[in-house]
Amino acid sequence: MKDMYSSLIELGYTQNQIDEMDIIYHMKLLAHRKANRKTKGKGKQSNQSQVTIDQIPGF
To answer: Which pTM value belongs to this model?
Structure first.
């Protein structure tokens, strides 16, 4: 949780803005973006390795 707060602060959010946001929605949105990036790359060869959840900012 601290990593997520830290990442959001680095992106320019204030502590009050983070406290007011819907964290569950934010995490679902990050997961959705990650899933869309994976599906866009299907069928194409990629030199990128898999990304674990620990490597995603905000998780």
So the answer is: 0.46
The pLDDT of 18-27, averaged and rounded, is: 86
Each as own residue / partner, the long-range contacts of residues 5-10 (CB below 8 Å, 24 or more positions apart, any chain) are 7/57, 7/58, 8/58
Q: Backbone phi, then psi, for 56, in 5-degree steps?
A: -90, 125
Mind giving me the DSSP string for 23-49? HHHHHHHHHHHHHHHHHHTTTS---PP
Domain boundaries, the chain: 2-41+48-55
